[in-house]
Sequence to fold (243 residues):
Amino acid sequence: MVHKIFPRYDLDIGVSQSIATIVRYLLIVIGLIIIFQTTGIDLSAIGLLVGALGVGIGFGLQSITNNFISGLIILFERPIKVGDRIEIDDLAGNIVDISARATTIITNDNIAVIVPNSDFINTRVINWSHNNRRIRLNFPVGVSYNEDPEKIRNLLTEVANANPGVLSSPKPYILFEGFGDSSLDFKMLVWTTEYIDRPKILRSELYYEIFAKFKEHNVEIPFPQRDIHLKSGFDQVIDRIEK
Fold:
């Protein structure tokens, strides 16, 4: 129903599935009420039974109730929706389904992870695509102190502009972060929509291209260096030991 009916009204899949879930619950409730009325069951007697079960729900089914209510909050407030790229704790992936009790997330390794809905309400969730699917990624780059910072900025800008996964607007920016222990530290800031769920792939592609570009222009990539300073009295100590 979600994929056949709602596309006619130009609704995204997240909104469509939320509406479909709410409609399904309403139909179940209305159906139960109709069945009770047509069969002549006394609803007042059922009310007493529901009250008794409520005590059991409060103790034995507290977790399930919490997840169910959290699912309703998610469906109405929509802090997350189907299709979003999210991170929660050490888990990152795309949301493919939001049900009454749990949410299904598919990781980059195509592994389905079932997360209780209460986790999305009670813990901090990073939603990469809550507003839109355009995100900015940062990639650090270090070069030798012998290099010209302006030259490095131009080379890194060329690499960013040449990659089809990097957006031309907003434009890439090369940030000169400072003077490190062994290197001049830069950070490449690029925007993308294609690699929102594969940031490591874009980083790998850019680093391959940066290495080739630096090699072409003889840019020196630094390695850790340490200066050792010996005190003037060190030689005298050695002489005493030898004697």
User: Anything to note?
Assistant: The chain has a mean pLDDT of 80. The radius of gyration is 30 Å.
